[in-house]
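Structure ticket #2291
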Amino acid sequence: MSDRPGKAPQAGVASVAGASASTARHGRVAAWLRGVLGHPMARGIDLDSAEATAVHARIIREKSFLRRVYLHYYEQYERAIGRAAPGGLVIEVGSGAGFYHEVRPSVVSVDLRAGAYVDVLGSALALPFRAGSASAILLLNVLHHLPDPAAFFRECERVLKPGGRVCLVEPYVGPLSRRLILPFHHEPWDEAAGWTLPAAGPLTGANMALPWIVFCRDRARYDADFPNLPVDSIRLHTIVLYLVSGGVSMRALLPASLFRLVVWLERLAAPAGPLLASMMTIELVRR
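Resolution: structure written out below.
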């Protein structure tokens, strides 16, 4: 609907026109805020380039609130490892810009992005490890970038020892995240899509709804296709914690001194997770 003066909408279409105007307005506001709040180091970079990997690594380390968010998610890694069969490798997939090796120096980091500072350059769809060699496979905001998640799950079945675990920290599709995260994030979000992604780069290829598609919308299909890698738990969390950190593309909206307060408030709201959560942690266990 145009913003220019004109005829008033007919009664029969007034509500539709109003909704269209509201949607357009929301999009403009979100775009304006992204421009105003955009992190200066992240502007104009090719997301699939070595420069982007280096810039994201620097932003994650230098933004105190965001660094604490990562440490918060790494705690979930640690809990999953504690529940896994011992004695095997601990592998983090897609770890190029992160710093989990500072928490667990023995972790084997894997990534295929240009410029990734990792132990192994390789693909999640063809993990370069022998069968039954791993205790845990860890991913933070990675699954929704994989072009074929089913191929990744088959690799997990192959590489994990019995009792080994996969821990995935990923976006969750809920009523609030649709309104709060979707408008402000640059990555695609398609709840009607299938399990695969079109050909693209390692970061530009994405569907933020993909983890929800696999583990919520299509849960029966996952259970049928991967009986030897069943879902042990799905925990919903993170209401605004990541959003106010600004991620790797925007400035932080709150100082790091308020991090613990935000975490405490989100824990109080945990029972409303299906309505309020924007992230989830999925744990799979190898039979």
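Closing remark: The mean pLDDT is 89.
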